[in-house]
C-alpha cells in the first residue's frame, strides 16, 4: 500500500496537450506555449513570404520535455489577444487552485504569442511563475503601461530581427519582475528564426525551464 501511494504521487511529465488537460496533478510541472500570429487559423504549418514555413508541430515536439507537460493550443483565426489572455489566465488560475505551485508553471510565447503571454502575466500578478518571451518586446509593449510582466523572465531575441531586447519592458516593470535573463541569437533569419525549432533558441529555453531556482 505504501509503495502504491508513493508511486501514484510521483511527478510525471512529457505529455503534449493541444488543449487544457482534463486531469491535473499538483506535483507536475506545466509549460504553456503560445505561437505566433501567422499560425492562427487552421493550418499548423503556414508559409510566410519572407520568413518561410512556421512549423508549429515540430516546435511542440522539440520544446516538450520529460520533466514537464507542454500545453500548446492552436488558436483560431482573428483571435483577440486580450480575450485569449483572459482564457489563458483562467487556465493558469485553475492549476493554482488545484494545488500546482506557481514555481511549477511556465508561460512561453513567441511574437503575438509573447504579447499574449505578457498580458496573461499582467493579469496573474504572480512573482513565482516563469515567463519566456521570444521576439515579442516591441516598442508597443514597452510603452503599454497597463501591461506589467510578473515573475521570472527569460527573453530571447534575434539580432537580425526588428524586434529586440526586453530591457525597456523590464525597466518599466522593475518592481514586478522577480529575475531577468536575456540572450540574443544570430541566425540571420530575422523574425523567422523562431518559425522552426532551431537549437539556437530551443536549447537555452529548455535549459532555463529546467533550471533549479534559488529559494
Number of strands: 9
Q: What order do the strands of the largest sheet run in, or round the barrel if closed? A: 1-5-2-6-7-8-9
In CATH, what is the class?
Answer: Alpha Beta
Question: What's the rounded overall pLDDT mean?
Answer: 92
What is the CATH third-level topology name? Rossmann fold
- By oligomeric state, this entry counts as single chain
Number of helices: 7
Going by helix content, strand content and strand pairing, the class is alpha/beta
CATH architecture: 3-Layer(aba) Sandwich
What name goes with the CATH superfamily?
A: Alpha/Beta hydrolase fold, catalytic domain
| Count of separate structural domains | 1
Outline of this structure?
GO terms for molecular function: hydrolase activity. The chain has one domain (13-210): Rossmann fold (3-Layer(aba) Sandwich), CATH 3.40.50.1820. It is built from seven helices and nine strands; from the N terminus they run αββββαβαβαβαβαβα.
Amino acid at each position: 500500500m505504501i509503495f502504491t501511494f508513493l508511486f501514484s504521487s510521483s511527478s510525471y511529465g512529457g505529455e503534449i496537450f493541444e488543449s487544457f488537460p482534463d486531469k491535473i496533478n499538483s506535483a507536475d510541472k506545466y509549460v504553456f506555449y503560445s505561437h505566433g500570429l501567422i499560425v492562427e487559423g487552421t493550418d499548423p504549418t503556414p508559409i510566410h513570404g519572407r520568413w518561410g514555413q512556421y512549423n508549429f508541430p515540430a516546435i511542440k515536439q522539440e520544446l516538450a520535455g520529460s520533466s514537464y507537460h507542454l500545453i500548446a493550443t492552436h488558436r483560431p483565426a482573428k483571435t483577440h489577444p486580450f480575450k485569449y489572455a483572459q482564457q489563458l489566465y483562467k487556465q493558469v488560475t485553475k492549476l493554482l487552485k488545484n494545488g500546482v505551485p506557481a514555481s511549477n508553471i511556465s508561460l512561453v510565447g513567441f511574437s503575438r504569442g509573447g504579447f499574449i503571454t505578457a498580458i496573461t502575466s499582467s493579469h496573474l500578478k504572480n512573482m513565482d511563475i516563469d515567463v519566456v518571451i521570444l521576439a515579442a518586446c516591441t516598442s508597443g509593449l514597452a510603452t503599454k503601461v497597463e501591461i506589467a510582466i510578473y515573475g521570472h523572465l527569460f527573453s530571447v531575441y534575434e539580432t537580425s530581427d526588428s524586434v529586440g531586447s526586453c530591457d525597456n519592458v523590464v525597466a518599466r516593470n522593475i518592481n514586478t519582475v522577480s529575475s531577468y535573463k536575456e540572450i540574443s541569437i544570430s541566425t540571420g533569419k530575422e523574425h523567422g528564426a523562431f518559425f522552426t525549432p532551431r537549437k539556437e533558441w530551443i536549447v537555452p529555453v529548455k535549459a532555463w525551464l529546467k533550471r533549479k531556482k534559488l529559494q
